[in-house]
Amino acid sequence: MDGTARAEAHCQPCGGPAPRRVRHGRPARPADRAPLKFDLDRAGHLHIIGSPRSGRSQTLRTLAAALGQAHGTDNVHMYGIDCGNGALHVLASLPHCGAVVDRNQTERLGRLLDRLGVELTLRQSILGTRGTADRAELRRSQPLHERLAHNVLLVDRFEVFEREFSSYDNGSYLERLLRLLRDGAGVGIHVVLAGDRVLASSRFSGTTEDKIVLRLNDRQDYSTVGIPSKSAPSDPAPGRGIRTQDLSETQVAVLGEDLSGTAQAEVLAALGRELTEREAAVPAARRPIALDVLPDRIAYTDALALHTPAGPMRPLVAVGGDTLTSLGPDLTGVPTFVVAGPPRTGRSTTLLTAAE
Known about the structure:
Elements: E1 21-27, E2 36-39, E3 46-49, H1 56-70, E4 76-82, E5 97-102, H2 106-130, H3 135-141, E6 150-156, H4 158-165, H5 172-183, E7 189-195, H6 202-205, E8 211-213, H7 220-224, E9 240-243, E10 249-252, H8 261-278, H9 300-305, E11 318-320, E12 325-327, H10 347-355
Parallel strand pairs: 3-7, 3-8, 4-5, 4-6, 6-7
Antiparallel strand pairs: 1-2, 1-10, 8-9, 9-10, 11-12
Helix pairs in contact: 1-8, 2-5
């Protein structure tokens, strides 16, 4: 990518009015250097379309960095679904990011989609109750400390997600994501999909008009994503793209002089440490929902460190929850507790843990 293009966004102190738009690139023609911006109050979803190694992951990281710099954690909450080689994992260092979920973490991925689905339903109910036309009108009518945050879900290598989850659990994972695409933009839930020509499918293409097309290995694919063959580039550089709205060329910004993936991740991690300090005063209730990883195994001493006994008859049995905490029955209120399952599933261990 062009090392002279930088992600630009002005830092905004938490609690103040945040700028609507963030810069994540610029038009490539020298005569037109106005920054490429993503306006949260006006934009819906964004599709980043390109072949592998065309700059899709870098676009997501640049956008996340720009959003983090420009907005407080009380105004923007980010989540990531990484179906590639782990390029999005560094987003977890940003205080705005609640979770970055790997495609192999199916249970955690389901929790993330469920949480966003519940948030979508809640926001639709609030809009209906208030009688407001859209999220922008609702946000203007709310005090700063009550204003609904923008939720931004970034998905890397969407073609992998579509392939693996179109039939998994009867297609429920893909259907939950499609619901966010259909209804989320109107209530401040934005989905940024980075994928290949699968995004040209009518099932996904109609969810947004905001698309950036990076390099496609097959020139015939440009026409399927809305770019006439005569406007298709012959050999674009990494990060060089075309906006389908006006067919203008763009160059995605990078985060530092060193263009290697490791160096870009280090810059983003350093930004995360800086922003964590900047956002330290934001209360927990205004921060994004955390989705801790549920361990496959946990020692009793480690579980005990998470235990917050509510009384002498609430034994520690397990850990769980979006934010890991101890779980166990309250035998004071309900004196009967059943541990059920076939042999060798952990029934005896559960009783031993409760007895301990």
